[in-house]
Design goal:
Blueprint (H helix, E strand, L loop, with lengths): L2 E3 L10 E4 L4 H10 L7 E4 L5 H13 L2 E5 L2 E5 L20 H10 L1 E4 L13 H9 L3 E4 L4 E4 L7 E3 L5 H11 L5 E5 L5 H12 L3 E3 L5 E5 L8 E3 L4 H10 L8 E4 L7 H10 L2 E4 L3 E5 L8 E3 L11 H8 L5 E5 L10 H6 L3 E5 L2 E5 L8 E3 L3 H13 L4 E4 L2 H4 L5 H7 L4 E3 L1
Parallel strand pairs: 2-14, 3-13, 9-10, 17-18, 21-22
Antiparallel strand pairs: 1-22, 1-23, 3-5, 4-5, 6-8, 7-8, 10-12, 11-12, 14-16, 15-16, 18-20, 19-20
Helix pairs in contact: 1-2, 1-3, 1-6, 3-5, 4-5, 5-6, 9-11
The protein binds uridine-diphosphate-2(N-acetylglucosaminyl) butyric acid (EPU).
Amino acid sequence: MDLHIYKSNKNKNISGTVKVSGAKNSAVAIIPACLLTDEQVILENIPDITDVRNLIKIITDMGHFISFENNILSFKRNSKAKYHFKDSINKLRGSYYLIGSYLGYRKKIFFHQCGGCNIGSRPINYHQNGFKLLNVKIKETKKGTLYQAKKLLGNLIKLDFPSVGATINIMLASVLAKGNTIIENAAIEPEVTDVANFLIKMGAYITGVGTNRLVISGTNKLHGTRYRIISDRIEAATYLALGCINDNQPVTITNIDPTLLTSFIDTLKAIGHIVTINNNSITALKGKTLSPVAIKTAIYPGFSTDLGPIITPLLTQIEGTSTLTETIFERRFNHIGDLNKMGADITISENTIIINGNTPLTGSKVTCQDLRGGASLLIAAIIAKNHTIIRNADIIKRGYEKPIAKLKNLNIVASIN
Ligand code: EPU
């Protein structure tokens, strides 16, 4: 599919309010976590994005019951469902949370390669090492991997790196294990905390939530609950960035906890943009005097790797040289060639990009290669003064709910076909 950002935006007033949707990376973990109880679970604020739709299809194809309407998802486990996952698994990264959930629920799962953005090698060895320490036997076959445990036994698990996925997956597998599991060097991203809070609402015993040492005391049974997931800090930042494009054209985002975006907001302010924070909303306005910055991505609460591509188009508009150093993934610069095609002056030096700013951007035909790279091209296209066509734009819909309607709220004319 192609996403068109039209020339007619040239004289438009890019300002308004956007309501942020629920967090993709919470949703893709919390939906599989519903498998840990045989009672009904209701989830609120679930984003209607392709990753969620694909995950629902995988789980319902297994035989479980899910209804999803108006961002509310209802989940009921089916004890007769299969444990053998085959199709669609490779459509999203988060499908790997089915491993931890199924281990907790049935002590067994047969799983194929999971998918996700092409932003690096993305192995799951930390997940697997953690499962092994919980007494899981892992058998690789030509068709996939069988994970199986006679009994899940709690253990001390020290992660080599505070991996978001490994922390969540080990938590999912350990809440119904026998004894205590301690995860040291755990990730503290807000989505990890969201999953822990959800599991606690289902009756799990977890302490140290929000710290890098999680203690999970296994229990026999979890119960149904109603839970509202947090909002998406990356989607929030994407729309906030649009408020920093034109003079006197602020953008406000609502339905967001501003504390989730502290490092992004601090960076916008360091550039010279004006950011106003309220209880549940944030407004960004382009500053009068802007300065280049040097950014280094980091684990939470540092500057998120997902936000590097989001801020890059803004840096192309600032006089002087900015740098962005990526420290989490190997291939996070897929979109840079296309930004240069649009007129940016960016060079890649190992894991750093050097942005020589104050370059006008011109609409072009570009191609979306990964989710956040696609969002980067979208922001660049809105800055550009003529028609841009973004190919492979379906990738953007993996993580952004109703992007065309939300852009329309900001007077930005776009279409996908
Ligand atoms: N890593 C390993 N082995 C593992 C797990 C991770 O070597 O077993 C490495 C990764 O290759 C990477 C680093 O550790 O270099 C960090 O990976 P992490 O596990 O923290 O990331 P993830 O769980 O694969 C999630 C999000 C990403 C987000 C990162 C970092 C989901 C589904 N994905 O990925 O989100 O960038 O955490 O915060 O939660 C996105 O939304 O566009 C996205 C890519």
